[in-house]
Amino acid sequence: MVKIEYERKSRAAKRSVNWIEELERAGLSPLRDEPLARHTSFKIGGPADAFVTARTPGQAAASLRIARSAGAPVFFLGWGSNLLVRDGGVRGLTLALGGDFERIEFLGPTLVRAGAAVRVPQLVVSCAEKGLSGLEPIVGVPGALGGAIVMNAGTREGEIGPFVDEVETLDLAGQLSVIARSSLRFGYRSSNIGTALIVSALLRLKRGVKADIMAAVARQQQKRFQTQPIHTFNVGSTFKNPPGRFAARMIEQSGLKGYALGGARVSPMHANFIENFAGAKASDVLALVDLISERVRAASGVQLELEMRVVGE
Ligand SMILES: Cc1cc2nc3c(=O)[nH]c(=O)nc-3n(C[C@H](O)[C@H](O)[C@H](O)COP(=O)(O)OP(=O)(O)OC[C@H]3O[C@@H](n4cnc5c(N)ncnc54)[C@H](O)[C@@H]3O)c2cc1C
After folding, report:
1. Which residues are known catalytic residues?
2. Does residue 138 carry a pLDDT above 50?
3. Which end of the chain, C or N, has fewer beta carbons within 10 A?
4. What is the value of pTM for the model shown?
5. Cβ(53)–Cβ(94) under 8 Å?
6. Residue with CA closest to ligand 1 atom 7
């Protein structure tokens, strides 16, 4: 029994080494045991077995095919600004995008095609400079376009979803497809993108006056500076706002604003933000999440739902 288990484990280990070697042979320069704390705005997260940054669609497709043929799980990483990666890290392939995926093309009076790795603030400002309006409310979302579409990033003043005309994806077999507007569904910080990798999107914006759009962008930025702890290590809102309520106010009313647990604390500036203020582990953040959920439930009967995504072991 012990021998069979040993052989099973050693076959699995060999397979896992082989597929990473295959990524190397294909020129995809995988980083082994790459600490994901280096790639998340929380600065928290254990290692990825193999971390690849694909710079072309060909590299992304090849990485996916190699992982798939070895049965290795795949995780897509954007800017890591909505993620809590657990301390044990992420098994299999973690795939990030750069290079060709950082391009923005202006295709007509209102159409923009952007790669999934384009940072949202850069996209919004580039569009504003061309007199294209619509995305101003999300200028302060620090993520990349792919992550913003998956999460339907937004604020009370607007979300990205209504401006997405088409999304280009690679499935886990490395096949390219296009999801048309009519098949896309967006909800509150959610979409129906599923398990595919977003590689680019076509956005349909509105024509506007450049000076007005720039002024709206500046207003949004200023509001954020005044109300959010944007210079700390965090992932934005921890919890979604329950219908008709504000998670931040409910947490504040539970007496936890500023409360610290290990290296994590409820932001003294905005109670729906958790900050890694002193070398926090994912376990500190998760313990704080549990405490907040429990206190808010006890005080109001409402079960808060996470907005940040928790991944890994
Ligand atoms: C200071 C601060 C302020 C914030 N303010 C806001 C705000 O106002 N509104 C808001 O909505 N969010 C906000 N956020 C959260 C975060 O920036 C957004 O959710 C953002 O859209 C996440 O993008 P990302 O590239 O960082 O995605 P990641 O955090 O890397 O990933 C998020 C999810 O998307 C998936 N994903 C990422 N890229 C792809 C891809 N190319 N294809 C398929 N799946 C992919 C990941 O697997 C993961 O499930 C804030 C965060 C911070 C740190």
Report:
1. 189, 237, 307
2. yes
3. N
4. 0.94
5. no
6. 141
